[in-house]
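Q: I'm writing up a methods section and want to include an example of the input and output format. Could you take the sequence below and give the corresponding predicted structure tokens, formatted cleanly so I can copy it straight into the document?
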Amino acid sequence: MTRMTFQAAATMGQLQKRLDNIGNNIANSNTTGYKNRDANFSSLLSQQINTEPDPTNPAGRLTPDGLRVGSGAKLGHTNINFDQGSLQRTDRNLDVALLEDNHLFQVAVNENGEEEVRYTRAGNFYLTPLEDDQVMLVTSEGNPVLGQGGDPIVLANNMDDLKIEENGQINVTRDGVQMVEGELAVVEAVRPRLLEAAGNNLFRLSEQSLENYPLDEIINGVGFADVNMESGALEASNVDIGKQQTDMIETQRAYQFNARTISMHDQMKGLINQLR
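A: Here is the clean output for your methods example:
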């Protein structure tokens, strides 16, 4: 294989990853609180092929004579766009939407026997029964939602009504008496680009991020007075379908051009082999 084939093959593999990312965005265009992912490319190693100096070149030239040949492109990084999506009214007491950019709910996830705190923008919560006639506030995947203090929000089941207020407080009505029995813990992503997708519409802190930055420079708690939510509503995905379709066509064309490069190179080799 020649340099041309290596370059095209390497770029095609990375373009396939971008197509996978676009497909994931489109598939989650109706997912509550989903945040769009943008794939950015960077060039691979380039090589300078120098030639004999040409005396006809103008004096003062700084770059050497010859060609600069690249080795293709790679997917440099994927950025998560935390811009707020549109709000959709549901009038459901357990639905709540965050109104501030980079604000996140905290969720406890048990994976492979280890518990980890993860983050989400999705506010479609549910109640799951526990022992001793209690219920716990959970996400659509059944993961406990954390309250102030970092503990799951557990309530007694003998309630007449429950509502999440705009400041994150959970008001429970029993026998006509309304009381605050919990409060959602909200954090702010100070450096949102250091969060990585963890599946199921959740984000987490990568080990590399924690090695380079203190925790409070990545995630910071939000004070009670700064919490801003809308009850009875959900935040829709911020995916722009029109842009995703445009990006998909652009990526497919680039993939076709690189595939055509390999095909034309193969034809040229065939012509050379037929020379006598």
